[in-house]
Design a protein that fits this description.
- There is one protein chain.
- With about 475 residues, the protein is mainly alpha-helical.
- It has 2 domains: about 15-225, no CATH class; about 250-460, no CATH class.
- It is about 85% helix and about 0% strand.
- The protein has helices at about 15-45, 50-85, 90-115, 120-125, 130-140, 145-160, 165-190, 195-220, 230-265, 270-285, 285-305, 310-335, 335-345, 350-360, 365-380, 385-395, 400-410, 410-440, 445-465.
- Helix 11 (about 285-305) runs parallel beside helix 15 (about 365-380).
- The chain is globular.
- Residues about 1-5 and about 445-470 have low confidence and may be disordered.
């Protein structure tokens, strides 16, 4: 049975909400990153470098396609949280249903475009020959199930909107466990090789979907029968948030490509060092990455409830949380730096870069986290385009000039230092603009009330016509 609206974030200690939502969300996220790493390790154990390379190219291409799902999930999370804060269960259900329908449509259109042209898109990334063939096979297995992961993201966002942090954690966590268990069975036990890794991912996606959609429907009746009038009405609002979120997510791999290109000038040791850093970062700072999605419902509920003092408090507490967490993790990395180098067998420039990252460069993760918090406030407060601009600015203007100058002056370590310096510059601007948007928010609440007045008026007219046998 569906429950009534419970805006859990509109009362209680704000810092506690920020801490609990971030840590619970990070568990599933950390599990996903860990399984991705294990996935590549298993493929590498096959003894064929081309397979590992193919999996890397396929993952890069699929990241761009999954950006659509991420954008729709962000839109669903923000809009449902606002509705929940305004004690509007029906509005939350409508937004979730609209986002789910768009996910299904995108899940049909994207594979229809990408799959017939898989080799072309892989070629743009640099894949060719056997590597491109293997990557295309991997994509043909996984990409048709894009809608499955999209629906699970929307369901999880809906649950977080209601403050169901623990329930929202289990789908990703158990889905990752499924992937980790099936990988060795399919890859080695059934001798399916790289195709086995792909099918393990598909199975994990269905497990994640089941664990996400069941509680969303059982507890809150998340998805209801769609009506054409509110589907078209919600299209503009969903796209207003989803499109900037998609563009913002695409900016990240662009920045990564820039750093990789600059680092490649200094040899394979430098690339190896960056590869280790690239694997450590999402695991060590998964809580900060999770905060980007966790802070949205807290801001959204309080904004929908018109409690602007709590919105401001949540913003400040989120930044405090980022500072405390980054400081703690950097201390741990500093103390374990020699063990980390030994674990990966790093030497030469790779060792230099890892040691430099463990301290002090890891401290710059605070500024990346600050941008995440600011972007969440932009999306929630009706300024989603700001998130797009800051993401692209940070990953282009805040990356290339600083990394290029650093590399020119100090070599490979300078590239790493330059990347961190660029994040500081744009994070300071993003934090300031975030404060300004919260202090002077756009009046999107009137728009929200107007929409639901029209819906209620429409329903009343339909009821009268039905009662008196009218035609409509």
């Amino acid at each position: 049975m569906a429950q009534n609206s419970t805006a859990t974030f509109t009362t209680g200690n704000v810092m506690r909400h920020v801490t609990v939502t971030s840590f619970t969300a990070s568990i599933g996220l950390m599990a996903i990153y860990a399984v991705d790493l294990i996935d590549l390790i298993f493929i590498s154990m096959l003894g064929q470098d081309v397979m590992a390379a193919a999996a890397g190219y396929a993952s890069t291409l699929m990241f761009f396609t999954s950006a659509i799902n991420i954008g729709l999930a962000v839109a669903a999370g923000v809009l449902t949280a606002r509705a929940i804060g305004a004690e509007d269960d029906e509005g939350a259900q409508e937004y979730a249903t609209t986002a789910a329908i768009f996910v299904i449509v995108a899940g049909i259109l994207v594979p229809a475009i990408v799959l017939p042209n898989a080799h072309f898109f892989l070629g743009l990334l640099g894949a060719e020959g056997e590597v491109a063939d293997l990557a295309a096979t991997y994509i043909w297995i996984i990409l048709p199930f894009t809608f499955v992961s999209g629906l699970s993201m929307v369901a999880v966002s809906f649950l977080r909107g209601y403050g169901e942090n623990r329930v929202a954690m289990y789908p990703a966590l158990l889905g990752a466990a499924t992937n980790g268990i099936l990988d060795p069975i399919l890859i080695f036990g059934l001798s399916m090789g790289m195709e086995g890794a792909a099918w393990a991912t598909v199975c994990a996606r269905f497990v994640t979907l089941g664990l996400a959609i069941y509680p969303a429907i059982k507890r809150y009746n998340a998805f209801i029968r769609p009506r054409s009038y509110w589907l078209w009405r919600d299209l503009a609002e969903v796209n207003q948030l989803a499109i900037p979120a998609v563009l913002a997510n695409i900016a990240t791999p662009v920045g990564t490509a820039i750093i990789t290109r600059e680092m490649s000038k200094f040899g394979t040791d430098a690339i190896a060092g960056m590869a280790v850093i690239g694997r450590m970062t999402p695991v060590a700072f998964s809580v900060i990455l999770a905060l980007a999605g966790a802070i949205g419902p807290i801001l959204g509920q309080n904004y929908g409830a018109k409690q602007m003092d709590r919105v401001r408090q949540a913003y400040v507490d989120a930044l405090k949380f980022v500072a405390l967490y980054v400081g703690f993790v950097t201390l741990v990395l500093f103390l374990l730096r020699d063990h980390i180098v030994a674990l990966f067998g790093a030497s030469g420039m790779a060792e230099t870069l890892i040691l430099l990252y463990c301290f002090p460069v890891a401290l710059a993760s605070f500024f990346n986290g600050a941008v995440f918090v600011a972007n969440a406030s932009f999306s929630t407060m009706g300024r989603p385009s700001y998130a797009t601009w800051f993401s692209w600015a940070q990953n282009t203007l805040g990356t290339f000039p600083f990394a290029y100058l650093g590399g020119t002056l100090y070599g490979a370590p300078g590239v790493l230092i330059g990347q961190a310096s660029g994040s500081v510059f744009f994070a300071v601007i993003a934090m300031y603009v975030g404060f300004r948007v919260i202090i002077n928010p756009p009046d999107i609440r009137k728009k929200h009330r107007k929409h639901h007045y029209l819906v209620n008026h429409h329903n009343m007219v339909m009821h009268v016509l039905d009662k008196h046998g009218g035609n409509h």
